[in-house]
Amino acid sequence: AQTVTQSQPEMSVQEAETVTLSCTYDTSESNYYLFWYKQPPSRQMILVIRQEAYKQQNATENRFSVNFQKAAKSFSLKISDSQLGDTAMYFCAFLGAQKLVFGQGTRLTINP
Amino acid sequence: GAGVSQTPSNKVTEKGKYVELRCDPISGHTALYWYRQSLGQGPEFLIYFQGTGAADDSGLPNDRFFAVRPEGSVSTLKIQRTERGDSAVYLCASSLGTARNTGELFFGEGSRLTVL
Q: Which long-range contacts (CB under 8 A, 24 or more apart) does B45-52 make?
């Protein structure tokens, strides 16, 4: 079974700083997707960024980028120029042949 | 509607009662997923529908939990004889085709269930 591990339960940075959230996963599959979701207090899961495993190039969405290391099974999220609105829970997730599997989450706080 | 809709938003019930939670997916989405998220945890998979049939119900914790999707659109998650440990946010997600093919799930805002 696939597992996703987020080793940082909480992180806190100052506004405008850069922050990196860590994620590792375990799978025997070769073709899969990896995601970072943001969950504000409203509870809705918002897709931040997606990476397809067969693509070597790291995905980027504006201030959000990933460092995808397939051999190491590592998928970290970098948030540049952090903003107060980035404060939320962040979940790393794996989608293989079966269902979407989530990590335990990292609570990120951006301080003014 | 434009997004995945879940009702009720909040539900408080007493131990032992029966509860139904509803999910209305994005129109045309054939795949529908239910997840349970306990406080401070990541969502845990419960069940996945492809059309009207449950393609994977391996995440349902016990036989008190049941879900249906009779017409391939709206789904209802049913919990019998509720227990305090069932308190959680129940999230629904849908995708066009299988999420495996599209690589994208759309989530609702969840139903928060509190069992007293």
A: B45/A99, B45/A100, B45/A101, B46/B77, B46/B90, B47/B77, B48/A99, B49/B75, B50/B98
* Domains present along chain A, CATH in parentheses: 3-111 (2.60.40.10)
- Mutate which of A3, A45, A54 to test chain B, going by most B C-beta atoms within 10 A? A45
d(CA B75, CA B46): 13
* A97 to B100: CB separation less than 8 angstroms, yes or no: yes
Asked if A43 lies within 8 A of B91 by C-beta distance, the reply is yes
User: Is residue B2 over pLDDT 90?
Assistant: no
Q: Do A95 and B103 touch (CB under 8 A)?
A: yes
pLDDT at B99: 65
The CATH number given to whatever domain includes residue B11 is: 2.60.40.10
Taking the C-alpha atoms of residue A1 and residue A10, their distance in angstroms, rounded to an integer, is 26
pLDDT in tens, B62-111: 999 999 999 999 999 999 999 999 999 999 999 887 766 667 889 999 99
Give the total number of structural domains in chain B.
Answer: 1
Q: State which residues form the domain around B12.
A: 5-115
At residue B25, does pLDDT exceed 60? yes
Residues of chain A with pLDDT > 70, as a percent, come to 99
pLDDT score of B1: 54
